[in-house]
Amino acid sequence: MKTVLLESSLHPDGLAILKHEHHIVGPLTADNEERRKVFATAHAIVIGSNWQIDDATLAQSPTLQVVGRPGIGIDNIVLADATRHGVCVVHTPDAPTRSTAEHAFTLLIGLAKGLTRSDRGFRQRGWASRNDFTGVELKGKTLGLVGLGRIGGTLARMAHDGFEMRVIAFDPFIDPARAAALNVTLKPSLRDVLAEADFVSLHSALTAETRGLIGKAELETMKPTAFLINCSRGPVIDEAALLAALRAGRIAGAGLDVYSPEPPLPDNPLLTLENVIVTPHIASHTFDGVHAMSVGVAEEVCAVLRGERPRWLANPEVWERRR
């Protein structure tokens, strides 16, 4: 029986899968002596977004075989370091797709209809507040996607099939045949998408290339009537530039589920603007999404510990020389 250290809690069904085969310790959220002691002899860890896994961390656990990360993003894990140490990195890229896409579309609708602004106005000023905001219909409007992977593709279907929106996208890694099947028009540059779209939704991974992808120049390219939605990673947007654009009316509003840093500082001005809808990084946190991520990561971790190649191995080159 091997030891699996949990940084954060899992759905009971995922926990049951791990407990059936292994000894579970945790959740141990804090970086303290207790967690470091368990980690030193652990065979697997399941982490959230806060624990940074790099060369220095991996050197502390010579027994570690696999790092499990529920969800898609693995930007807090240095894959090259894990590979060098012979440690597998597994995740669940399919599990949060639908929940995250639905959340992004919820933010889109909320911005289009001024839901949070109208809610606050009605509660504070009564019926007279009904003239404070005029919404827009989605039919015929253009949705611009930055990233057309699992989540972006699901959102494209919702927009096109459900609301008769025109969908355009920038994603240099996507097969044009996939875009055509989704009724999405691929654009040659990010600037083209930003200039045409009435709603821009970000669905790119956080990499060195995408950090600060949306800055002052990009925001100035957008229509003054356009809205920006981010359910990917906070650092994809230059928050200072976004704040300036929102205050100046260079864009109409934003819907944010992610921030830089996380959690955002309590005095972050983005949390106070009327033309911004904010949620606390909960796009994938539905009963269905959490269940799928927990069960998925448990199955992947158990596969590695049994010596079976997992389905979602983020660093496949490690497999033949794993610990």
Broad shape: globular
Helix content: 25-40%
What order do the helices and strands follow? Answer: EHEHEHEHEHHEHEHEHEHEHEEH
Please give the number of β-strands.
12
Largest sheet: 7 strands, parallel
Radius of gyration: 21 Å
Helix/strand class: alpha/beta
Spatial arrangement of strands, main beta sheet = 8-7-6-9-10-11-12
For the termini, the CA-CA separation is 16 Å
Which segments are poorly predicted (pLDDT under 50) over 5 or more consecutive residues?
none
Describe the structure.
A seven-stranded parallel beta sheet has the order 8-7-6-9-10-11-12, sandwiched between helices. It contains twelve helices and twelve strands. The mean pLDDT is 96. The longest helix has 19 residues, at 287-305. The radius of gyration is 21 Å and the shape is globular. With 323 residues, the chain is of the alpha/beta class. The two termini are 16 Å apart. Helices cover 36% and strands 14% of the residues.
In short:
With 323 residues, the protein is α/β, with parallel strands linked by helices.
Question: Mind sketching the topology for me?
Answer:
Blueprint: E1 3-6, H1 12-21, E2 23-25, H2 33-39, E3 44-46, H3 55-58, E4 66-69, H4 79-84, E5 88-91, H5 97-113, H6 115-125, E6 142-146, H7 150-163, E7 166-170, H8 176-181, E8 184-186, H9 190-196, E9 199-202, H10 216-221, E10 227-230, H11 239-248, E11 253-256, E12 276-278, H12 287-305
Parallel strand pairs: 1-2, 1-3, 3-4, 4-5, 6-7, 6-9, 7-8, 9-10, 10-11, 11-12
